[in-house]
Amino acid sequence: MYTALRLQRKLKAELKSGAVRITVVTRDPYMTYQPFLPEAAAGNISPRHVVVPLRRVLHQCHIVIGEADRIDHTKRTATVTTLASPEDGTGAIQLAYDHLVIAPGSISRTLPVPGLADYAIGFKTVEEAIGLRNHVIEQMDIASSTRDPAIRDAALTFVFVGGGYAGVEALAELEDMARYTARYYHNIRPEDLKWILVEASGRILPEVGEDMGRYAIRELRARNIDVRLQTRLDSCENRVAVLSDGARFPTRTVVWTAGVKPAPILAACDLPLNERGRLKCTAELRVAGTEHAWAAGDAAAVPDVTSAEKGKECAPNAQHAVRQAKVLAENVAASVRGGELKEYRHKYAGSVASLGLHKGVAHVYGRKLKGYPAWFMHRAYHLSRVPTFNRKARVLAEWTLAGLFKREIVSLGSLEHPRAEFEIAAGGGPPAKGPAPQEN
After folding, report:
1. Which of 52, 62, 264, 392 is the most buried (most CB within 10 A)?
2. What InterPro entries does this protein map onto (predicted)?
3. Cβ neighbourhood burial of 324 (10 Å; 0-12, 13-18, 19+)
4. Is the pLDDT score of 157 beyond 80?
């Protein structure tokens, strides 16, 4: 989205004359600003303000809602399955191009853990974030209503696997939300809820440094969150989380945030990949050894020209991806016009992470912050980075209102089954349940 947005501006004259056409192939008609997913899950931000509608901001681009199945760069064609493909029976379409920009991001990296596919939920999309929020509140409703202590204990046990940004921020925000929500239940106290963070390595939040990582662990444990380092999830079959340290936790909630892997389209193209499955790129964001193929973000292995370490690559994170997109657009425009390309150059500034309302950690330009200052920096930074003035204003307004009024504690889990009520009324009987983490 950032690349296409900048190309709109750089190639305004060519677009107007019809000499250039920009086509964006995307599975979703919006771009998700992922750093705001934990706040959306906690109810601090409306889900619709975490996403940016592509048709509104990319008004000079041709938007194709679908998924690229294969790319043949030697023939300059992409095979795309659109939403209409199953309906009209014509199959995938072939899109021809002159320049190719590959920026599909990444997908969740799963392991062959028994029961994982049946019971776990990820945390990469706005749908998963809102589904998880609804699910947590529904589990509190179940625990409040049941007379079976085993069901109650399982409903109030929440296991998060992965101690990176996604896992820690999602757990911290949801624990904050659930602790607040518990005051409205007559038979649930905050200490009845059991939160467990499972991390295979010996630290969490490695991006903020060891000191801030240790502080984050102390902060989480002070909130009765069970942080287990050097521990793996061995199984979650039959709604029982079995850990490598021998612990067993009956639970109805397993959230998997243990890393990502390259999008499948990279393996279905004829472009060079490195040993980790990412596209080999030059500092100008060209795919190495090719002409007119470009990449950025998680999909691209871009050399870090600011590092003294030989062979070091830019980290696959939003800080680099957004900046790479702008340079990529300028280089594509320069290539179209026969201009000079420039290298992508950005020295890593540091990282910030939220640990719930008014709590956070940060390590920025060598300075370490914690507590309220880090939390404020986290919000200020991401507010400055979320695209479009419209979204900035809406997010700021929601934060302001959240500071003046009480939290929303409504679960809208029925949104996941919008026809359920009508099916019952029409005599179809109760609808089938969805996956365990999202059931009503």
Report:
1. 52
2. FAD/NAD-bd_sf, FAD/NAD-binding_dom, NDH-2
3. buried
4. yes
Sign of CA dihedral 276, 277, 279, 280: positive
Angstrom distance (rounded) from CA 150 to CA 250: 8
In whole angstroms, give the CA distance from residue 299 to residue 82.
Answer: 22
CA angle centred on 250, ends 232 and 182, rounded to 5°: 105
The pTM score is 0.87
DSSP state letter for 255: E
And the tokens for 25? 């192939």
Q: Which residues contact residue 439 at a Cβ distance below 8 angstroms, ignoring those fewer than 6 apart? A: 138, 433
Strand partners for 280: 301
Q: Is 80 exceeded by the pLDDT of residue 159?
A: yes
Cα gap 162→116, rounded to integer Å: 14
According to the 3-state scheme, what is the secondary structure of 12-73? HHHHHHCCCCCEEEECCCEEECHHHHHHHHHCCCCHHHCEEEHHHHCCCCEEEEEEEEEEEC
Residues β-bridged to residue 24: 63
Mean pLDDT in residue range 285-303: 94
- The answer to whether residue 361 scores a pLDDT higher than 60 is yes
Each residue's pLDDT tens digit, 1-16: 999 999 999 999 999 9
Angle between helices 389-404 and 372-385 (to 10 degrees): 150
| pLDDT on residue 420 | 76
Domains, in order of start, for the chain: 2-105+262-337 (3.50.50.60), 116-258+397-404 (3.50.50.100)
Give the other-Cβ count within 10 Å of 403's Cβ: 9
**Residue 356 structure tokens:** 């719930």
237 vs 120: CA distance, rounded Å: 10
Cα distances (angstroms) measured from residue 125 to each of 61, 80, 88, 151: 24, 22, 28, 29
Q: Compute the mean pLDDT over every residue in the chain, rounded to the nearest whole number.
A: 90
What region does 379 belong to: left with phi over 0, alpha with psi -120 to 50, or beta?
A: alpha
Q: Are 85 and 94 in contact (CB under 8 A)?
A: no
- The residues, any chain, with a CB within 8 Å of residue 140's CB and separated by 6 or more, are 155, 156, 178, 181, 182, 185, 188, 193
Instruction: Kindly state the tokens that stand for 229.
Output: 């380092």
In the block, tokens 């040993």 appear at: 275
Q: Is the pLDDT of residue 413 over 80?
A: no
pLDDT at position 261 over 80 = yes
Among 372, 341, 350, 369, which residue's Cα sits nearest to residue 359? 372
DSSP 313: B
pLDDT, position 27:
92
